[in-house]
Amino acid sequence: MPCTQPPSAPQHLISNVNETSVNLEWSAPAFSGGRQDLTYNVVCKRCGPDGQRCEPCGVGVHYTPQQLSLRTTRVSINELQAHTNYTFQVWAINGVSPQSPGPDQAASVTVTTNQAAPSPVTSIQAKDITRHGVSLAWQQPERPNGVILEYEVKYYEKDQNERSYRIMKTASRSADIKGLSPLTSYVFHVRARTAAGYGDFSAPFEFMTNSVPSPIIGDGANSTVLLVSVIGSVVLLLIFIAVFVIGRRRSKYSKAKQDSDEEKHLHPGVRIYVDPFTYEDPNQAVREFAKEIDASCIKIEKVIGIGEFGEVCSGRLKMPGKREICVAIKTLKAGYTEKQRRDFLSEASIMGQFDHPNIIRLEGVVTKCKPVMIITEYMENGSLDAFLRKNDGRFTVIQLVGILRGIASGMKYLSDMSYVHRDLAARNILVNSNLVCKVSDFGMSRVLEEDPDAAYTTRGGKIPIRWTAPEAIAYRKFTSASDVWSYGIVMWEVMSYGERPYWDMSNQDVIKAIEEGYRLPPPMDCPVSLHQLMLDCWQKERAERPKFSQIVNMLDKLIRNPNTLKRTGAEIPRPNTTLLEPSSPEFSSPLGNVSDWLTAINMERYRDNFTAAGYTTPEAVVHMTQEDMTRIGIASAAHQDKILSSAQGMLSQMQQIQDRMVPV
Ligand code: ACK
């Protein structure tokens, strides 16, 4: 027999960076060396800003499933440092590799991690509990991911609604909370902020204030009071321990229960958005949600645009003790009415409640002198629609899907907070120098007044017709599901590099065409899977549209399996400036519904599993993996195989149908 040899390098290594995590995927080497014992080792190197001077990443970096002797062709690497260059090598190894190690057995990729918010604060301690206050202290988060600028303590009475909470900010790792009611249980959460934004809040920390004044130690005049106080304190201490232990037990229980729930329930810090117009005094909302900035900290440099309320400028913000940063400055023009001032500042009260990498970050407001200003982070590449038009055809499909994923993630956050945007469109997305997209434009009146694409409806309201779901146009039913419709239009704008949805059709014609069941066709070179997702977002029945969490998952899956993005339908000659007819094969599933299919393959017992996990269309089912099956509760390997092989058959049937598709 000939000698066996070391394998050649893994092929097609691709990376996907998500904040401080990196996913690597590759395919098997072209040459296996004539052996079956192929595994992979991953080498991680941290490099200087120029990508040179690399050193081993060391401990602290986590690899899933593992770093060495991998049998899979993918690995997820977590807990990397933010804003850092890394080079990863993936080595193909077999039993004879040690005989002849060489660089031709490895593939490598270099990435830069993004910014990441700090990890949650974990250990909080209460010191000096009194009738009306408590001193809290905590440790720095395990992974600060940057310099901690401040901590925020959120607290509320345990028996009260969590929405009536109070916030205290501090630069140190302790806080003296005052003004509490005696003998009352309070819940505290602490979170840290760096230049990348806020981290998650800590788990709840509960305690009860004292009922008796602190004894005056050394005053022996009234030993009875002292004795009562000491007994009282001991009893309270026992109550406190009991409350703490029960609290801990309960939170452990609820965590176990909630693990399968939506993300918003997992993080006690994710709260519901508060409409600033529900405040009797909207200025109070501004004070609560936006930081007042001294005008002397701001340098206006140039005008970059005109908004409804005045000029939009770029400039610099230098707060005492902090680094200077680039900012965008929205100004309120002179001669404004009180209502205009309120409407202008409502955007800051809304934006100030959000904290997410795909939502534009509010730095603060200037209200104490004129002009009144709203200061936000600066987004170097401006609005997404103009940016795409300027860069027509320059991005890979994966980059475009990355853009869409960012927007969907920001929208998921907003919908988790029960905020409905109402004017989601590429013109209202901003792009920074790293191609990170952030949702912006949160003014309430703006939706109706400022947007040049908004038109008056028969009911008198002003609505951006081309981006808006039919039920929102017809009877103002604005929900996260109508935002999903708009998101589908944004997908179309992105994949067509900023083309105007429905081209030069009039608003009336658009409304009529949508009502008759027509939909936008796939833009040129758009993967079939993405156009299908758009069509799902444009379901007439809003309950049938995907949720933003499902859209994020779907896009993640497409990014992980780039092969699913290869089919573009380009082989079908079709003018792509004509709407799709309602009867197009792409439209409704040509393969019937999931329930019928499960019945046909004698697997109807899993119908509820599919429905509960959101796999409601054959298009969604055909891309499922074995892991997905396990996740939705199909434990039997034989059943998994049966369903997967039938789904494969369905996929090829689908492809045949699409190949037969005719121009409409
Ligand atoms: O497309 P643009 O350059 O991006 O023109 C508009 C203009 O101001 C009027 O809204 C730009 N703009 C708004 N907010 C920001 C921001 N945070 N960073 C950079 N540009 C911004 C927008």
UniProtKB/TrEMBL annotation:
Cellular compartments per GO CC: dendrite; early endosome; plasma membrane
Domain Fibronectin type-III: 6-116, 117-212
Subcellular location(s) of the protein: Cell membrane; Early endosome
Gene Ontology molecular function: any one: transmembrane-ephrin receptor activity
Taxonomic source organism: Clarias magur (Asian catfish)
Domain SAM as annotated: residue spans: 593-653
A Pfam family annotated for this UniProt entry: fn3
EC annotation from Swiss-Prot or TrEMBL: 2.7.10.1
Membrane topology: Single-pass type I membrane protein
Residues holding ATP: 330
Lineage, opening ranks: Eukaryota, Metazoa, Chordata, Craniata, Vertebrata
Gene: epha4a
The keyword Kinase is annotated on this UniProt entry: yes
Enzymatic reactions: L-tyrosyl-[protein] + ATP = O-phospho-L-tyrosyl-[protein] + ADP + H(+)
Gene3D superfamilies, A to Z: Immunoglobulins, Phosphorylase Kinase, domain 1, Transcription Factor, Ets-1, Transferase(Phosphotransferase) domain 1
Protein known as: receptor protein-tyrosine kinase
Enzyme class: transferase
Gene Ontology BP annotations: axon guidance; cell adhesion
Transmembrane segments: 225-247
Residues of the Protein kinase domain: 298-559
InterPro entries: Eph_TM, EphA4_SAM, Ephrin_rcpt_TKs, FN3_dom, FN3_sf, Ig-like_fold, Kinase-like_dom_sf, Prot_kinase_dom
Signal sequence region: none
Keywords on record: ATP-binding, Cell adhesion, Cell membrane, Endosome, Kinase, Membrane, Nucleotide-binding, Phosphoprotein, Receptor, Signal, Transferase, Transmembrane, Transmembrane helix, Tyrosine-protein kinase
